[in-house]
From TrEMBL:
Organism of provenance: Neoroseomonas oryzicola
A cellular component term, taken from the record's GO annotations: plasma membrane
Protein name (record): ATP-binding cassette domain-containing protein
GO BP terms: peptide transport; transmembrane transport
Topology relative to the membrane: Peripheral membrane protein
Amino acid sequence: MSTPILEVNDLKKHFPIRAGFFGGTTGYVYAVDGVSFSIAKGETLSLVGESGCGKSTVGKAILRLFDITAGQVVLDGQRIDDMPYGTLRPMRRRMQVVFQDPFSSLNPRMRVRDLLAEPIRNFGLAKDSADLERRVGDLMDRVRLPRDAVNRWPHEFSGGQRQRICIARALAAEPDLIICDEAVSALDVSVKAQIVNLLQDLQKELGLAMLFISHDLAIVEHMTHRVAVMYLGKIVEVAPKRQLFAAPKHPYTEALLSAVPVPEPGAARERIILKGDVPSPIKPPKGCRFHTRCPYAFDRCRQDEPQLRQTEDGHFAACHLHDLPAADNPLAGARGAAVIAHH
């Protein structure tokens, strides 16, 4: 089997809490607390979960936008989490990011031509000025914007067009991996669909790998290969898309899927309402972090932390329910298949 383009091993990011301006550390926010996954070349892995679960922190940690607390980030077989910044620079070209808000991502004082030319110049990808212009024009073609729009300023574009420019700027460095951090959540529904289709076409055309961070399961279902579900700093389930949507193996995933709008009007579906609020990442619950809201929790869940392990081929879940006899496990049957009936 070929080497994955990205491997994340037991990644942790704990933010210190300080008392006052000069005070010492009084505790930590356990934003990401032991996350592991891999992405194959040309694959899309979606990282999903409620707001505040730590999924965006995972993306920023991979990009080395801050130093991690523990763990490893391996890009194409080479560890980058402890790499000196001087050595890291060439590796940065291979992983690019598209953020949620395209307007704040673009320098308002730069024309589109300069925004797209900047990464090409930074990484020395153009032979001369003519090659630079050709590359800028090709990028506009790829994201389906007119070439003459390179003379305009970011404020002269709509939100969807600005996100296309952000995608073009990410492509300018010729990356192997693009991290999309809620890249379509700020867009209108019709524009969102266009951008998702564009990303899929670019992936097929260029062989890109993608980490697609989102809370929108309807979008995730449309464009991903595999899904990783996060809750309170940990991954609780990883599976190929069809397996996860047809039969979730974790109660949290089951509840998330029950909230997805039904594609067929009148289709029967049981909505699961979780009780209580998400616990604080400053003091996560002992045992399974989901046990305070889980409708199936039993004594072991309150004491022992479940490990992410395989429940069937390619499907991993961190849940003690799978140690029970099948007759006593509410997730062992085909109940999850009723969640999304159109597969």
